[in-house]
Amino acid sequence: MPAEHPADAPADRDADVLRRTEGRAGFLTLDRPRAINALTHPMVRALDAALTAWEHDPAVTTVVLRGAGERGLCAGGDIRAIHDDARDAGGTATVAFWADEYRLNARIARYPKPYVALMDGIVMGGGVGVSAHGSVRVVTERSLIAMPETGIGFVPDVGGTWLLGRAPGELGTHLALTGGRIGAADALLTGLADHHVPAAALDALAADLTRLPVDEALARHTTAPAPGVLAGQRDWIDACYAAPTVEEIVDRLTDSGVPAAKEAATTLLGKSPTALKATLAVLRAARALDSLEAVLDLEYRASCAAVTSHDLVEGIRAQVVDKDRNPRWRPATLAEVTDADVARYLTPPPGGDLGLAR
């Protein structure tokens, strides 16, 4: 048995991250509940510092990530701050934030101790990055998981294209382009989660993790989730999203005769045309890469291109700032997005690549 810490409480706070140890476990709680625990740069640094402290601490055998409040683990990055920085300062602070965030995502994936993410409630964007790369991903009946970036003129990042690119068939392409939200069963199906535990049992699971190995603790609480929806939609999703271009994907969805497919086409036509084409290009390039680090390097290129684009600022304005839900994309149609526009998202930024895969 590992040595006990001399004091298992209270928690230390570092930049809206609560850190405490109890028994054999180290607990990290994202603590911005009014913002659904949206990540800031100081929070990313705090998480990384905790992982550094615990990596070689023999008293900590398991790391557990939770979110404060009842709404979710993490709604993503602080996109209002990203909007303001991109609009007013060219995105300099945002690029620095992404660099550290992506390094953290890679570290979580390679962490040498069990990293248990309790993905209860809303888990989107950056929230996926700090949870779905962990070695143990737990969802509940309240889980609502998405990579909704195309709706704000952005491209799935934080290793999202690595995860979605490896989902069965074209399910990941569907989720990446539409930004669709999925529940527990579909998270298990697509490989974004490993176990389902009822939300009411999370506290008991956390308590068991302080004294038991992870497998034993999970065995006490894991149950089967309610059925999902994606398994029954594989036929039209795989057929439509295998098309070589976004335009043809939309055509296939529209012509499929399947109501849900037509709804997906309508959804796509409301997203940023540039973000859709860039997302498809990045997702398909990610499938050919052999490591999460290489994909994060690729996503960093796309993110650096997006932060200097019109559509990212405009998309956040429409969805979060003014909330008029009426973004004015530029270019406004898929046909107007050129190959050169897309290539910019695959090109190293002026400041150079992130270099995680070196």
From TrEMBL:
What CDD domains does the record point to? crotonase-like (cd06558)
Could you tell me the superkingdom of the organism this chain comes from? Bacteria
Q: Which Gene3D superfamilies match?
A: 2-enoyl-CoA Hydratase, Chain A, domain 1 (3.90.226.10)
Q: Which residues form the Enoyl-CoA hydratase/isomerase domain?
A: 26-346
Sequence intervals crossing the membrane: none
Q: Which UniProt keywords apply?
A: Hydrolase
EC id: 3.1.2.4
Database matches in InterPro entries = ClpP/crotonase-like_dom_sf, ECH_dom, HIBYL-CoA-H
* Top enzyme category: hydrolase
Q: Which reaction does it catalyse?
A: 3-hydroxy-2-methylpropanoyl-CoA + H2O = 3-hydroxy-2-methylpropanoate + CoA + H(+)
Among NCBIfam families, the record links this protein to: PRK05617.1
Q: Which PANTHER family match?
A: 3-HYDROXYISOBUTYRYL-COA HYDROLASE, MITOCHONDRIAL, 3-HYDROXYISOBUTYRYL-COA HYDROLASE-RELATED
Q: Could you tell me what this protein is called?
A: 3-hydroxyisobutyryl-CoA hydrolase
The protein's organism comes out as Streptomyces roseolus
